[in-house]
Amino acid sequence: MNEVSPRLRVNGAEHTVTVPARTSLADLLRDHLGLTGTHLGCEDGVCGACTVLVDELPVRGCLALAATCDGAEVVTVEGLAGADADRLRAAFSREGALQCGFCTPGMLITAYDLVRRHAVGSPAEIRAALSGNLCRCTGYQAIVRAIGSAAGETGAGPGVRAGGGAGAETGAPRARDDA
């Protein structure tokens, strides 16, 4: 079995981990670094539960091979820090955007990307940006409100065009009309 030893900076800490060449980034994070906040749902890149930031871009951890992330900066839900992350966590709690919690890490990473890029627009644009992150519990209304609320606190509120988010580059399904 071929092995690789990618060197990664994960949540600010340097790591070099030797893993089989076919190991996904999500498996490296969970099984080798103990960062279990990155959830594995579908393992096909459809649900968004495994979304992490790689070099500041949202990436599906289940689809990215760990070897391709050599030299990359990776941020997981455990590593989200700063005012934007704090506002999002507070808004998710305040708006009731948490239920079972399985989708929450991917939702928070996607929302963090939107807020930090000041790419939050109307509720419809937020829904479109979240279209690559599936939630079976909340119906999305509370999540959309939470992101809009957190963005409003940063000045990134409605009127700024959404930039696509974590689903745009992956060919994710369109936003739900009932969301």
Characterize the structure shown.
It is a single chain. The chain has 179 residues and is of the alpha+beta class. 32% of the residues lie in helices and 13% in strands. It has a 5-stranded mixed beta sheet with strand order 3-2-7-5-6, covered by helices on one side. A two-stranded antiparallel ribbon has the order 1-4. A hairpin with a 2-residue loop joins strand 5 and strand 6. Helix 2 (83-94) crosses helix 3, helix 2 runs antiparallel to helix 5 and helix 3 runs parallel beside helix 5 (141-154). Mean pLDDT is 86; it is low at 158-179.
Structural class: alpha+beta
What is the CA–CA distance across the termini? 45 Å
What is Rg?
Answer: 16 Å
The topology string of helices and strands comes to: EEEEHEEEHHHHH
Averaged pLDDT, please?
Answer: 86
The percent range for strand residues is 5-15%
Main beta sheet strand tally, sense and closure: 5 strands, mixed
Instruction: List low-confidence stretches.
Output: 158-179
Q: How many distinct beta strands?
A: 7
Query: What is the general shape?
Result: elongated
Biggest sheet: strand arrangement? 3-2-7-5-6
Query: How helical, in percent, are the residues?
Result: 25-40%
Number of helices: 6
Give the secondary structure arrangement, pairings included:
Blueprint: E1 3-4, E2 7-10, E3 13-16, E4 19-20, H1 25-32, E5 51-54, E6 57-60, E7 73-75, H2 83-94, H3 104-116, H4 123-129, H5 141-154, H6 165-168
Parallel strand pairs: 2-7
Antiparallel strand pairs: 1-4, 2-3, 5-6, 5-7
